[in-house]
Structures are given as C-alpha cells and as structure tokens.
Amino acid sequence: MTPDAPLAIGAAAAIIVAGLAALLAAGIRHRRAVRRKDVRQAEMLALAHAAHEATHAELLRAKEAAEAANAAKTRYLVAVSHEIRSPLNAIYGYAQLLERDDAIPPIEAGGVIRRSAEHVTNLVEGLLDISRIESGVLKLRQDVVRLPALLDQLVDMFRMQAAAKGLSLDYKVDGALPAFVRTDEKRLRQILINLLSNAIKYTDAGGATLTIRYRSQMALVDVADTGIGIAAEDLERIFEPFERGGAAADSAMRPGIGLGLSITRLLARILGGEVTVSSEVGRGSRFRLQMLLPEPMTAPAGVPHCGRVTGYDGARRTILVIDDNPAQQIVMEHLLRPLDFQVFAATGGYEGVALARRCNPDLVLLDLQMPGCSGWDVAAQLRAAFGRSLRIVILSANAHEFRAGGDGRSDHDIFLSKPVDLDALLDTIGDQLDLSWIATEERAPAACETPAPLPPAAAPYLQSLRHHVKLGHVRAIETLLAELEADVPASAGAVGEMRRLLGDFDLRSLARRLEHVD
Ligand code: ADP
Residue 107 falls within a domain, yes or no? Predict the structure, then answer.
C-alpha cells in the first residue's frame, strides 16, 4: 500500500457519503414536490367543486327567475285579455246591432263605443308607456302648469268616485303653493291619478286624503287611505310590472292589471322624483311622491287652460288639416271652427301642399299614412315652401314612427299619437302658435261632495239595475238608466254619476253606489 492509499480511500468514502446524502436530499425534495403537487391538485379540485356548486346555484336562481318571469307574463296575459275583453265585447255587440239596423239610438251606441275604445286605448297606452320609459325614448315636455288648478281638478274628479263608494276624499295644502310650476303636465297628472284611483279602489270604508307641501322647489305629496293595506313582503313587489298585492284574493276582486304603480314609479324617477310607500294591513296605506317642481321665472301667456276654451286673443289663425280619413277631418273642423280658426282640409298629401299655397296656413295638422305619399315627404315639401314660421304637427296612429321633432332641424315641430285627446291637441296648438286662450272659468262638472240623491220614485228601477250590474250587462244598464232618467227627472244627477262609473267600466263602484240607496 502506498502512503497515499488511506487518503484516497477516505476521499472515495467522502465522495460516496456526499453522493448518498445528495441522493437522499433529492429524494426528499422529490417527495416534497410530489406532496405539494398533490396538495395543489386537491386545492384545485376543491376550487373546481366550489365553482361548480356556485354555477349550479346560479343556474338554479336564473331558472327560478325565468320561471317567475314566465308566470308573471302568463298572469299578465290573462289579466290583459280580461281587461280588453269586456270593452271589446261592448264594441262588437253595438257594431252588430247597428249593422242590423236595430232601433238603437246612434248617440247611445256612439257613447258606449267611444268609452270602450278609450278603455282599450288606455291599456295599450300603459303598456307603451312602460316600454317607452324602459327603452329611454319617452320624451318629456316642459309645460308651465297651474299647480293649484290641476290639484283642484283631480280632487273634484275623484271626490265623485269616492262618494259613489261612500268614502270621503280630503284635500289639504300645508303652507302655500306656487301658482305655476314647470314640469310635464300629462305625466304629473298620470302619477297623481294612479295614486288617487288606487287609494279609492283599495279602500272600502273611511276615505283618502291628499296632502301637499311645497318648499324650496320641492313638492311632497302624500296620498293616504284607510283601506285594506299592503303586507310588508309586498311593499316592493307591487312596483314591479304586472304584480298585484298578496291580498290577491281581495285584489282580484278589484279591476286592474298591476301596471299603474310601475308606470307611476318610472315616471316619477324620470321627472326627478321618487314614490315610496308605507302601509299596515287592514289599517291603510300612504304613498308619498317627492318631486322637484321648479317655479318658472315668469308665467307665460299661453298656459294650458283650466276652464272650457272658447277662443283665443289676437288675429285669426288658419289651420290646414291633411288627412285621408274624412271622419278625422270632420272632428277637427268641429273642434276648431267654433274657436274661430279658419280651417281648410285636404284628403291627400299633394293636394294639401297645393292647398297650402293658396290658404297660407299658420299650422298644418298632418296625417302620416296616406295613400300614394308619406306624411314625412309632405312635411319636407311644406317646410321647403314655407320655412320655419309654419308649424307642422304630425298626427299618427303608428307609435313606431315616432320622431320628437321641434329641434330646428326636423321638418315637423311635434308628433302626437292617435287617438288624440282633443284637450291635449288644443294645448299643442296653443303652444305652437303661442296663443293666449280665452276660457270660461268653469270648474269640472264633477265638483260635488256627496252623491246626488235618488228620489223614492226611482225605487222600482233599483232592483233591476242591481241585477244587471251583477251580470255586467252594460247595454241593459244603459237602457235602464235612460228609462229612469226619462221617468224620474229628479234622478238626473244620480243617473249622470252612474253613467260615468259605467263609462269607466267600474261596475264594482256602481254596485256600491246602488247598495247605498234605499
Ligand atoms: P292595479 O291596481 O292595476 O293592480 P297597481 O300597479 O296600481 O296595479 O298596484 C299594484 C298593487 O298594489 C295592487 O294590485 C294592490 O295590491 C296594491 N296597491 C296599490 N295601491 C294600493 C292602496 N292604496 N292600498 C292597498 N293596496 C294597494
């Protein structure tokens, strides 16, 4: 053995030990790595499982929401068809009677058909309103509104309905109200009508109170009632479209389709306000409208009329009606001539443009759909010939053709949907021509505190009336009311009230009205 041999053996042993240690360390590292991988995989599995659970729960929620929406849609369709069917039946029935040349007075038939058409129109309007607001195409007006007169009118209108159910309707103004405010009058009216009509509809004893406070451009309107109330779990739901209160058995007895509050809240919000509710079942409800109603700097001359319009100040104005429907022309002539407008009418677009060159109108009422030409083309020709001083009002039955107009670039100044409310049309004409209306200071005829009395001589009619109201036999009720009015002239006031309830298809109130007489 060389002297270096032990050293070499020691070095070799050291190398082997180091190698073994390295191998051991690598084995440990490998095992750790495998364990870490296992843990990671287990964690990932747990995460995947949790994600799967969440997705599953979400899918379940989406399915439940879709089913609830479907059920609401079905309920809505049933309600809508129910709401549409009774007025349509009346229109259908009267049309057939007229065709058979029955001895039916045309005034009576016309009245029922008009009111029925109004009812269906309101329903369609309600649905369109929701879709317009939700799709953001609803155009708001900036009217100057006589706030006190508007509230007086509404209270008068509903006091009648309340009295017919034996309810009171109180009106309180807390502090002073401004004479004028600036807002969209039609929409404000719609909100208040919804709240007041609900207060009366859902109250069987006691009454309702409208209270208004006005401070720093902000109006606070409370509509409180002593009615059936709303369960706590329904307080938000009732603002959803087609949802009706949980006292469903009771609600189902009261006409309605569950659109009013949805429209009310949506409208209040786009007008810069909010509607809230507090209620106690069996004790009553309080709906609160809080809304910014700024006062205009000055009250302009052409504010909407509150009495009956009989004419206007200043020079005589000329209006040209272009409409292929002769009935529409006749309505316009009957509306406008008595107010001292000079009215010309044409049944076609090109004829209308030619007539305009001769009569030089201040304003044109223009139908959109006419055979052979479109109202839009006619508007363009009129605008090119007469410039901006001519006011062009489009009247169309097709809401899809809606274009707001009046922006200085469009050929037309304003778009109104048919059927047009004649008061709204007069307001529009007044606005467009900057007219100062002359109006009688008449109040709405409905201004009365208690139901008109029925004299004892009316007694023989009451039994039959109650019977037909129960059956919902509109024609028979109308006939009986006409007979009662003719035989017992002193009952005319009460007959008028009952006709109005019948006109609104409010048979339930009519039944109550008849219960409240001996
Ligand atoms: P509709 O009256 O056609 O059902 P609304 O949207 O106006 O539709 O009201 C929705 C629901 O809210 C009603 O069905 C009713 O249950 C409840 N409701 C509304 N106003 C009142 C009220 N003043 N008192 C009690 N319940 C009310």
Answer: no
